[in-house]
């Protein structure tokens, strides 16, 4: 919009007279500021204000004329009005006197009324004040009553209700009476009351945390007991169902299946008895301090502080609970206390999780459980490694299973605990193996290593009921009779089954399939056979007090144990219901174990037999310078041959109730006999060639020949049946050809046929012949035969020299060829 000055300037340029008229109109209007209008008059054109003044004077004169006209028009009316007013003055004065007199009389008459009215007003004011006081008291009384109620709630420790009362006072009652001083005092006191409530509730919470730490083991014990009862009931019910559907299974205590109904009935009775005694965590612990403290802090708007404090304190308690005692591994009670405290801790946390909102969360409990689980596994892994008693390890396993099942029932993952049980299972097997190693040693120590005598049918049935022995020929024989194995065989078989039962006990309740349990049983049984029993057998075989007869009996025993391995496999199959034809079924390695033991026993027989031969040979007392033989074999050799005959008679008289036994005993006897003859031949040859023996007479050679003849007679007498032809006599062929060479003095034939396949002295080594010949040559000076020979036939002396030279050349030729 254009300003007034702008408009005036524009108007002066168009029509000056009209413009001045407009300016005057604006000045008279009193609507616009006059300053801008006058400025436009004086600023736009030179001398414009003079023209404007002229216009203004003209306008003033016009107005004066109009005013004069109006006054002339109304003058007569004004004069008339003044005249009328003068007439009224007299009446007005009279009226004033009357009014004054009336007022005086009225005032005099109203004085009494005024006094009464003032009394009424004063009463009205008092009444109004009383009413006001009553209203204010009615307004204040609820506040005072509520504050009194607050004090009562504080004294009776109803702190949550007290906080609610404070809220009502602050939000509802105090605003009504906030202007009063007592209200201000109450308002100032409320923060202190709140702090007192926080301190008291926190103190109660600390007492609760201390109490819950002391009662954790009782809570955990109750929870684990309930979980165990539930599991026993479920397992028993499942067993009854298996019986109804015709499934065969072995029970832990080997209770016959027909007793399952009794067991189930007993389980139901126990369930009924315990039903009244079932306690929950609420029955054992008063959680009101937690609820109260949580509600108090929630009302105070400080819930986060309470949550942080609670979680921090419970984490500290968790670390204390997870710290085991140093001797925990010594008794099962130590493990039980450890587990019950942990279960009690997490049962409380689970209860807090479900009955409160936000105090603990699932994420918090999971984090706490994962931390605890890692610590638990580390503790169990460390402490269980000290356990050497399989019964303690088994009880520990049962505790871990109950512990895991209990916490799993509260929603905590426990797979890692069952993985740990597989580690402990390996340790359990190791402790079982050590225990059974002692059992096997005791069985072997108590065995008499002789066939089991049977005098009655009852004894026979009792033994075959424990050990799977079948021999139709033996059953036909009359009593008394003997079983081929010794007492250790059925005992070993029974103990292997007991080991399988013991191993099975650990495999139960591990939530594993029958295939896995079958595999575990077979592997642990294989360890028992291939490591423990095999080691015990080898140690037994090596013991010095075990003689040849005992070794032969051990060979027979291992044969029967080997045959019993298939029954052990059937035994495991009946337990697990896993067929042996399954692709992944592990086979028992008992066959190789007992074969190795049998081979070791056979080798020990040969070794002991050779040692006995060496003992007899050490008794030999030859007079190597004798001129004539005694005419009979040496006494030590005859004793040795008699000993060998008696030993081989034991071999041949072993029970041969089956072709297997006969073949086994015959093979061992033949090998032992051949080994004994070869060792005896070697020992006799070494006796002749001993470097410490410097001189040998022909008489000594002849005497030695008599002993070798007895050895050959022994070999030809077939001390052990089964040799073909003169196989056994070939053990002495080296000695025979050497002695024949010296006895006949057939050097020309030996030297002429040396190296020929058809040589009569093919087995005589030139070095051997040279050694013996030099020993005989050294005795020629003392030997009468050689003395006479030198006198009567010096050509023979030259012949000896010639033979020695030729033998040496043969020996040198052999060395160069080699």
UniProtKB/TrEMBL annotation:
<dbReference type="GO" id="GO:0006893">
    <property type="term" value="P:Golgi to plasma membrane transport"/>
</dbReference>
<dbReference type="InterPro" id="IPR042045">
    <property type="entry name" value="EXOC6/Sec15_C_dom1"/>
</dbReference>
<comment type="similarity">
    <text>Belongs to the SEC15 family.</text>
</comment>
<dbReference type="GO" id="GO:0090522">
    <property type="term" value="P:vesicle tethering involved in exocytosis"/>
</dbReference>
<protein>
    <recommendedName>
        <fullName>Exocyst complex component</fullName>
    </recommendedName>
</protein>
<dbReference type="Pfam" id="PF20651">
    <property type="entry name" value="EXOC6_Sec15_N"/>
</dbReference>
<feature type="domain" description="Exocyst complex component EXOC6/Sec15 N-terminal">
    <location>
        <begin position="55"/>
        <end position="224"/>
    </location>
</feature>
<dbReference type="InterPro" id="IPR046361">
    <property type="entry name" value="EXOC6/Sec15_C"/>
</dbReference>
<keyword id="KW-0813">Transport</keyword>
<dbReference type="GO" id="GO:0006886">
    <property type="term" value="P:intracellular protein transport"/>
</dbReference>
<dbReference type="InterPro" id="IPR048359">
    <property type="entry name" value="EXOC6_Sec15_N"/>
</dbReference>
<dbReference type="GO" id="GO:0000145">
    <property type="term" value="C:exocyst"/>
</dbReference>
<keyword id="KW-0268">Exocytosis</keyword>
<dbReference type="InterPro" id="IPR007225">
    <property type="entry name" value="EXOC6/Sec15"/>
</dbReference>
<comment type="function">
    <text>Component of the exocyst complex involved in the docking of exocytic vesicles with fusion sites on the plasma membrane.</text>
</comment>
<dbReference type="InterPro" id="IPR042044">
    <property type="entry name" value="EXOC6PINT-1/Sec15/Tip20_C_dom2"/>
</dbReference>
<dbReference type="Pfam" id="PF04091">
    <property type="entry name" value="Sec15_C"/>
</dbReference>
<dbReference type="GO" id="GO:0005886">
    <property type="term" value="C:plasma membrane"/>
</dbReference>
<feature type="domain" description="Exocyst complex subunit EXOC6/Sec15 C-terminal">
    <location>
        <begin position="417"/>
        <end position="775"/>
    </location>
</feature>
């Amino acid at each position: 919009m254009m300003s007034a000055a702008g408009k005036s300037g524009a108007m002066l340029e168009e029509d000056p007279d009209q413009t001045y008229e407009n300016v005057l109109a604006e000045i008279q209007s009193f609507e616009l500021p006059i300053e801008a209008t006058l400025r436009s008059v004086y600023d736009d054109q030179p001398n414009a204000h003079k023209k404007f003044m002229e216009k203004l004077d003209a306008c003033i004169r016009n107005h004066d004329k109009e005013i004069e006209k109006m006054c002339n028009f109304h003058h007569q009316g004004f004069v008339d009005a003044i005249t009328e007013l003068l007439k009224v003055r007299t009446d007005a004065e009279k009226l004033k006197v009357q009014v004054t007199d009336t007022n005086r009389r009225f005032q005099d008459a109203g004085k009494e009324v005024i006094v009464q009215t003032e009394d009424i007003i004063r009463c009205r004011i008092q009444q109004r004040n009383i009413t006001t006081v009553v209203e204010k008291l009615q307004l204040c009384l609820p506040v005072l009553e509520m504050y009194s109620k607050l004090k009562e709630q504080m004294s009776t420790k109803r702190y949550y209700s007290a906080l609610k009362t404070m809220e009502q006072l602050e939000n509802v009652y105090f605003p009504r009476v906030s202007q009063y001083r007592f209200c201000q005092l109450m308002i100032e006191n409320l923060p202190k009351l709140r702090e007192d409530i926080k301190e008291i509730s926190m103190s109660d919470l600390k007492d609760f945390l201390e109490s819950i730490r002391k009662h954790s083991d009782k809570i955990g014990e109750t929870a684990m007991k309930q979980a165990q009862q539930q599991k026993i009931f479920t397992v028993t019910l499942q067993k009854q169902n298996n019986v109804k559907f015709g499934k065969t299974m072995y029970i832990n205590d080997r209770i016959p299946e027909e007793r399952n109904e009794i067991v189930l009935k007993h389980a139901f009775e126990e369930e009924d008895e315990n039903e009244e005694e079932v306690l929950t965590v609420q029955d054992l612990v008063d959680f009101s301090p937690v609820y109260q403290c949580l509600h108090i802090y929630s009302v105070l708007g400080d819930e986060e502080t309470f949550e942080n404090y609670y979680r921090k304190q419970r984490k500290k308690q968790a670390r204390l609970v997870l710290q085991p005692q140093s001797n925990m591994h010594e008794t099962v009670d130590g493990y039980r206390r450890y587990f019950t405290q942990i279960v009690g801790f997490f049962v409380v946390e689970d209860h807090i999780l479900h009955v409160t909102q936000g105090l603990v969360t699932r994420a918090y409990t999971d984090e706490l459980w994962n931390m605890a689980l890692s610590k638990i596994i580390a503790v169990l892994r460390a402490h269980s490694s000290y356990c050497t008693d399989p019964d303690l390890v088994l009880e520990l396993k049962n505790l871990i299973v109950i512990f895991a099942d209990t916490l799993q029932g509260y929603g905590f993952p426990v797979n890692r605990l069952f993985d740990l049980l597989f580690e402990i299972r390996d340790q359990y097997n190791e402790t079982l193996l050590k225990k059974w190693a002692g059992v096997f040693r005791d069985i072997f120590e108590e065995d008499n290593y002789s066939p089991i005598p049977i005098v009655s049918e009852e004894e026979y049935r009792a033994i075959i009921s424990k050990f799977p022995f079948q021999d139709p020929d033996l059953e036909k024989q009359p009593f008394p009779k003997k079983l081929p194995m010794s007492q250790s065989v059925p005992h070993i078989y029974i103990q292997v089954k007991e080991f399988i039962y013991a191993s099975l006990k650990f495999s139960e309740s591990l939530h594993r399939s029958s295939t896995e349990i079958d595999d575990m049983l077979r592997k642990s049984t294989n360890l028992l056979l291939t490591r423990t029993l095999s080691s015990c057998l080898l140690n037994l075989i090596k013991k010095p007090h075990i003689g040849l007869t005992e070794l032969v009996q051990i060979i027979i025993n291992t044969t029967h144990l080997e045959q019993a391995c298939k029954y052990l496999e059937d035994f495991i199959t009946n337990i697990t219901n896993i067929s042996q034809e399954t692709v992944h079924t592990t086979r028992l390695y008992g066959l190789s174990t007992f074969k190795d033991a049998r081979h070791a026993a056979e080798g020990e027989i040969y070794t002991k037999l050779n040692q006995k031969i060496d003992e007899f040979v050490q008794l030999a007392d030859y007079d190597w310078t004798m001129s004539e033989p005694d005419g009979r074999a040496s006494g030590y050799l005859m004793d040795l041959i008699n000993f060998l005959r008696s030993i081989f008679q034991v071999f041949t008289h072993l029970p041969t109730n089956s072709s297997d036994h006969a073949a086994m005993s015959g093979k061992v006897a033949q090998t032992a006999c051949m080994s004994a003859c070869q060792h005896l031949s070697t020992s006799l040859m070494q006796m002749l060639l001993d470097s410490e023996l410097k001189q040998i007479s022909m008489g000594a050679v002849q005497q030695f020949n008599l002993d070798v003849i007895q050895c050959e007679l022994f070999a030809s007498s077939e001390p052990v049946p089964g040799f073909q032809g003169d196989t056994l006599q070939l053990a002495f062929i080296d000695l025979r050809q050497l002695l024949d060479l010296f006895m006949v003095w057939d050097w020309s034939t030996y030297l002429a046929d040396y190296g020929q396949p058809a040589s009569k002295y093919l087995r005589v080594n030139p070095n051997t012949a040279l050694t013996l010949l030099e020993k005989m040559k050294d005795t020629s000076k003392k030997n009468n035969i050689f003395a006479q020979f030198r006198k009567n036939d010096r050509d023979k002396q030259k012949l000896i020299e010639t033979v020695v030279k030729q033998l040496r050349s043969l020996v040198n030729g052999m060395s160069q060829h080699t």
